Amino acid sequence: MIKFEHVGLRYGIGPEVLSDVSFTLEPGSFHFLSGPSGAGKSSLMSLLFIGRMPTRGIVSMFDQNIAQLGRKQLTAIRRRIGVVFQDFRLLNNLSAFDNVALPLRIQGKPEKEIRANVHELLEWVGLGDHMHSLPSTMSGGQQQRIAIARAVITRPRMLLADEPTGNLDDEIGFRLMNLFEQLNRMGTTIVIATHNESMIERFAHKRLILDSGRLSIVEPKSWVRRKIEEVTGK
Predict the structure, then answer these.
(1) Distance between CA 156 and CA 112 in Å, rounded?
(2) Is domain 1-80+157-166+187-234 classified as CATH 3.40.50.300?
(3) pTM
(4) What does the pLDDT look like over 83-102, one tens digit per residue?
(5) Hey, how many other C-beta atoms are within 10 angstroms of the C-beta on 174?
(6) pLDDT tens for residues 99-122?
(7) Any idea what DSSP says for residue 186?
């Protein structure tokens, strides 16, 4: 689905913030993206949702080299990608319901279908009693859940989430992770950028680790293997 080949990214004439990044995201895969602050996670995420173009190397999405595509083709690819930003990017003049419904309305879905899908999803993320509330009247955690619901309402081919559980308590955070797991089982490719080590350990998925702009890939350890290592020290 996604392939990076020796990709580099720099801003202006500064040094590269990403250097020789190469990896493949298979359809239906699930990856965590981690690394220290300043390692380049946000830059890599911006390349994944085509918010920026690489300064060198090749990025292929859905079997197409994005450097060879026109504006309409890039827009069509972006519509296959759901994104949860750290700053939420909600429309403050729209209710929680209308924020989540917006992608479906852009697609021209029937209003009856929109109402059913949005109601179900907002109930699932624990906001059934806040459907008509404006984002400005809601907590940061509630706004985050609206942003997540909006990103997944269209069942995108790929979902990118930047610290999606950062403002949530553990119970809601794990509940949302289970939603991501369900989407993944239905075929959605998932990439979650997070510093939450307990979340990474609980959900055994491949890990993309950035350090000083360079990427390594770590296979997950099963829960059983981790427990054996904790007990034996091996």
Answers:
(1) 20
(2) yes
(3) 0.84
(4) 988 788 899 999 999 999 99
(5) 16
(6) 999 999 998 999 999 999 999 999
(7) T
Bridge partners, residue 31, by sequence? 191, 206
Question: Looking at the DSSP assignment, which residues form a beta bridge with residue 61?
Answer: 2, 64
Instruction: Tell me the two tokens of residue 174.
Output: 């794990």
Residues contacting residue 73 through CB under 8 Å, at least 6 positions apart: 64
Structure tokens at 60: 């292929």
Segment 70-94 shows an average pLDDT of 91
Query: CA-CA distance, 228 to 234, in Å (whole number)?
Result: 8
Burial of 204 (0-12, 13-18, 19+ CB in 10 A): middle
Does residue 96 contact residue 131 with C-beta atoms inside 8 Å? yes
Residue type, 234: K
d(CA 220, CA 211): 18
Direct distance between the N- and C-terminal alpha carbons of the chain, in angstroms, rounded to an integer = 37
